[in-house]
Write a structure and sequence with these properties.
The chain is mostly helical. 75% of the residues lie in helices and 5% in strands.
Length: 398
């Protein structure tokens, strides 16, 4: 949970700090260990309008921080000097405060990984593990560079997928708004014109007119119910359990399920390859990357890890656990022969990324005309059903 701490610092100033802790007491103890006199603790978890849609404020720019830290380290500055320089240039109060706490812990004699580990909201376990491994080998700038490249590749794939869906989602949104306008504004006004002839119309036209009467009589109540349903839907979709359920359902769909599996495997192999190249043992790397897999794949990874611990080859354990494709299995075998498993896993991830990009492009090209046809039929059907009574009325007059 996240707690907001109001406290007095060493300079007798009242400050506000956000701390991740198990409970309020643990958050207060952590703030006290930083030299703060705690005035009050307030939990940030819970319902809030601003976090419901934005996800809880701005995130710490880990990629930018890493890039700037690498530049300063390569220029000859020490770790403490580099972090202190980044704190001095930071203009945002919350980030400046976090970096100040980081500098304080470094001055206390803690290593960079130990200091980073105490701020899990800004520095994920994967990042901390990468720094800790580099501290043993003495190649911190190179390890941070690998993490920056890793994060860039992950963001690139995500941006490709998101950008490919922008136009279909825009088209769907516009079509939905047009349908809502017709059903909520135009149809009720047509319904008043056809109240006397509604009984002689086809079933669909009568249903449309009945809907128009309902909206005209109870429009405010329907709007409130619709808005409440939308808010509840957003809250439900933001729950981690909901995402797990939706992902599990997605994995069962023909075609889409296999692509979702490949997408997860791409992230898994890219992360695993980066950790192995950083000098982290295979079993530790598998434990840290297990959270990237969802549903049944996580259980398969646990079974594969057990087999690897028993001495089975990585390629064989991954293949038997359903965590590879034929191409990936062969590439893993090559990595085992050459001793370059980290590089080979990153190449597997790149192969998967290219496959996903091609499939997304093909799917969007097929999906867009189908979506346009469905929206056109829906709007056209509403319009025809609205004007059908006019045709009936004209026929009766003739």
């Amino acid at each position: 949970m996240r707690f907001e701490i109001r406290a007095i610092d060493r300079d007798a100033r009242v400050v506000s700090q956000v701390i991740d802790a198990e409970d309020a007491q643990a958050a207060a103890r952590r703030a006290g260990s930083d030299g703060l006199a705690v005035l009050g603790v307030r939990a940030q978890d819970g319902f809030a309008w601003r976090t419901m849609f934005r996800g809880g404020g701005q995130r710490f720019p880990l990629g930018l921080f890493s890039q700037e830290l690498v530049t300063l380290l390569q220029a000859g500055l020490s770790v403490v000097e580099s972090v202190e320089t980044l704190r001095e240039k930071e203009s945002r109060a919350e980030r400046r405060q976090l970096l100040g706490q980081l500098v304080a812990k470094l001055y206390q004699g803690q290593s960079l990984s130990q200091a980073l580990e105490q701020f899990p909201a800004a520095f994920p376990p994967l990042y901390v593990a990468t720094v800790r491994a580099s501290e043993r080998t003495g190649d911190l700038p190179e390890a941070l560079g690998r993490y920056v490249a890793y994060q860039s590749q992950i963001d690139l794939v995500r941006k490709k997928v998101v950008s490919a869906w922008i136009y279909p989602l825009l088209l769907l949104s516009v079509g939905t708004l047009v349908i809502i306008f017709l059903l909520g504004y135009v149809v009720p006004r047509f319904a008043r014109l056809f109240e006397d002839i509604g009984r002689d119309l086809p079933l669909l036209s009568r249903l449309l007119i009945d809907w128009g009467r309902l909206v005209a009589d109870h429009g405010g109540l329907i709007a409130v119910v619709a808005a409440s349903a939308a808010v509840l839907l957003v809250i439900w979709l933001r729950r981690p359990q909901t995402r797990q359920i939706l992902l599990g359902w997605l994995l069962t769909l023909p075609g889409l399920g296999e692509r979702a599996r490949v997408y997860q495997l791409a992230r898994f192999y890219r992360t695993l390859g980066m950790l192995l190249r950083g000098g982290i043992p295979i079993m530790s790397a598998l434990e840290m990357t297990g959270g990237l897999l969802q549903g049944s794949l996580r259980g398969h990874l646990l079974a594969a890890s057990t087999r690897i611990r028993e001495g089975v080859a990585i390629s064989q354990a991954m293949d038997s656990g359903g965590l590879t494709t034929p191409v990936a299995t062969r590439m893993l075998r090559v990595g085992e022969r050459t001793g370059q498993m980290g590089e080979m896993m990153e190449r597997i991830a790149q192969f998967y990324d290219d496959e996903i990009a091609r499939w997304v492009d093909w799917f969007i090209r097929l999906f867009e005309p189908i979506l346009m046809a469905v929206i056109g039929v829906a709007i056209g059907g509403i319009v025809v059903l609205m004007y059908f009574p006019i045709f009936e009325l004209a026929g009766s007059v003739q």
